[in-house]
Automatic annotation (TrEMBL):
It comes from Polaromonas aquatica. It comes from the Bacteria. This is PP0621 family protein.
Amino acid sequence: MKYLLILAIVMVVLWLWKNNRRTDINNSGEKTASPRPKPPGVATEIVACDVCHVHLPRSEALTGPRGVYCCVAHRQQAGSQGHP
């Protein structure tokens, strides 16, 4: 019987510690849940930088008048070259 009482006390202490920790995280402004991943079946379009040909998602690419680029330097480099 005393082992059940000790187990119950340990469980209560762990529950209180976990709840207190969750409250501290919420008060500090940190996110408690991770962002939701995209549902399966939703494809991300991949494009290549017109200067270095690195592949990256279109949502992260920078667009310019002559194409798609991986960084500002490559967009400027392509813009500074003369028209073909």
